[in-house]
Amino acid sequence: MSVLDPLAARYASWLELPASSTVDTSDEDPAEVRAMPVVLRIERAEPPGRTAVLEAAAAAAVAVCLDPRAEPGGEWHDEVVAWIGGRIRKVSRRARGAHWEAVQALPGITVEVDGAQARALVPGRVLDAPKELTRLQISGSELPDDEPGAPPPGVPVLHLNPRVPMTAGKAAAQVGHATMLLAASVHADGRGEELAAWAEQGHRTAVRTSSKEEWDALHPGDDPATAWRERGVVAVRDAGFTEVEPGTVTVLGQWFDHA
Question: Which of 126, 144, 188, 211 has a Cα-to-Cα distance from 133 of 20 to 30 A?
Answer without folding.
Answer: 144
